[in-house]
Design a protein that fits this description.
mainly alpha; disordered C terminus
Length: about 170
């Protein structure tokens, strides 16, 4: 880009030189035209035609000059854009590679996160089942205690009842 900036500066300086030359030449032609016209009365009759011819030639020259300036400008821009395009493509490819690496890292992290979430869900389910099993064990133990208590009552009653039966005999 620096090279193209330098080219642009050189182009602009040369363009300024050419434009100053155009002004100098224009002034000289005006002077010579005025001298030629003011020389004789006969030449004054052709002043308008001479000035029209001069303006026509001057406009054609300026038009060709502007076309050449435009073409040179386009060539400089084309060179700059082609070079920048190459650098841009290299930069895009580097960024694509970097983005692919980042995407791979992100994918691995997402997979780890999903695995972690699945593990957490499984852990929560296991914890819930553990609590349910513990509750069922408490309920079973409670029923067992009640059954043992009932059994003990009935066996005490039977012993008492048998004791009474023995006593009564």
């Amino acid at each position: 880009i620096e090279v193209y900036e330098k080219m642009r500066e050189i182009f602009e300086s040369r363009k300024e030189k050419v434009e100053s030359k155009f002004k100098q030449v224009d002034e000289k032609i005006e002077e010579k035209l005025n001298l030629a016209i003011n020389n004789t009365y006969e030449s004054r009759k052709f002043e308008t035609e001479a000035r029209e011819f001069y303006v026509k030639i001057k406009n054609e020259t300026l038009k060709r000059y502007e076309e050449k300036v435009y073409l040179i400008n386009e060539q400089i821009n084309t060179l700059r854009f082609e070079t920048c395009r190459g650098k841009l493509l290299i930069n895009i490819n580097k960024n694509k590679i970097h983005l692919s690496q980042l995407l791979g890292t992100l994918q691995a992290r997402v997979e780890d996160y999903i695995e972690t979430e699945q593990f957490k869900r499984a852990y929560l389910k296991v914890n819930k089942r553990q609590k349910n099993i513990e509750q069922e064990l408490k309920d079973v133990n409670k029923r067992n205690k009640e059954l043992i208590k009932e059994f003990n009552k009935q066996s005490n009653n039977l012993v008492l009842f048998e004791g009474c039966y023995i006593c009564c005999l």
